[in-house]
């Protein structure tokens, strides 16, 4: 695995440090809105002068408490997120003025009904297709959310406010994408473990401009290091594309482990990877339409059909010179588990080995995963 920089701040450290910043912001009267999904148009919160916090949980800790009200056979991300809310142990949930949910998978949308008993949860009705009718409906939901923010905070959010926020977020997408596209360099210039951990950790930094500065600086540093030490020196380490569910809660036992076993994770088709960042908001369109179009096109498996994800994976295999695809599916995530059939077919058509791991946030299956990763790497070599 490529070495981590000396000043590397782990995800858990960043989460802890973020608490204090968030507390200060809250005490200074900052508006804070909690979200659980890439489909939520965060530009509107920015335009309201607010800060968005992602509340998707990646820890096993609160799951037992959540299982008092939720079925055991449910996605760990949903159980952990609800468990933190129920046990009042997540400061980010605590500091949020209200929560924005969305009707993505069945588990999340039903969980939001329970969450609403703890803190106000505004649910955006996301259609599951991408035709004109769906876009019309989603545009209306965007406007409903816009109005909700205005009513909740007693403010007016102008078109100009939203335009400014769109420009800021489009720039952030570009910066993050450039960082993630470092994986296109061969040999790999940075570990996939570092890329993923860094981007997740940045979610606890409320200042978009600051987030961009940190990532731009690290991108420059990595390129300098690559040109001085790695360029022109071929590597025999297999290059892996990770796809599937959000992987923060399973990163240690999968991504870190496969890199320790001798591979390089160079690409991420996931919500904490490039998925949400490739398409920008088209500012030439009317504002709500532009937001609607951009967000409806996110290649998440809750969309049906979702062939654009297969096209994207296929392109990534070429652009990142991929040798193997590792799909991570969280336990009981039906949409990703079923769509895995198409992903496998896409890989087969490209002649690329594919491995599907279904797992949860526990450490119980670490040994088994390790054995499967070793066997997978043997099929590549
Ligand atoms: S846009 S990936 S963040 S829905 S919660 S679907 S893992 S069973 S998180 Fe997601 Fe939005 Fe899509 Fe991204 Fe499966 Fe679990 Fe549901 Fe999940």
Overall shape: it is: globular
**How helix-rich are the residues, as a percent range?**
40-55%
Number of strands: 8
How are the strands ordered across the major sheet?
2-1-3-4
The amount of beta strand, in percent, is 5-15%
Q: What class do helices, strands and sheet pairing give?
A: alpha/beta
Q: What is the terminal-to-terminal distance?
A: 17 Å
Question: Which whole number gives the mean pLDDT?
Answer: 95
- Order of H and E elements: HEHEHHHEHEHHHHEHEHHEHEH
Radius of gyration (CA) equals: 20 Å
DSSP summary: helix tally: 15
Bound molecules: Double cubane cluster
Largest sheet: 4 strands, parallel
Give the low-confidence spans.
none
Please name the defining characteristics of this protein.
381 residues; four-stranded parallel beta sheet; 15 helices; 8 strands; 12% strand; binds Double cubane cluster
Give a written overview of the molecule.
The protein is an alpha/beta fold. It has 15 helices and 8 strands. Strand 5, helix 11 and strand 6 form a beta-alpha-beta unit. Helix 7 (132-153) crosses helix 12 (287-296) and helix 8 (159-180) runs parallel beside helix 10. The longest helix has 22 residues, at 132-153. It is globular, with a radius of gyration of 20 Å. The protein binds Double cubane cluster (BJ8). Double cubane cluster is lined by residues 37-39, 75, 77-78, 104-105, 107-108, 245-246, 271, 298, 300, 302, 330, 333, 335-336.
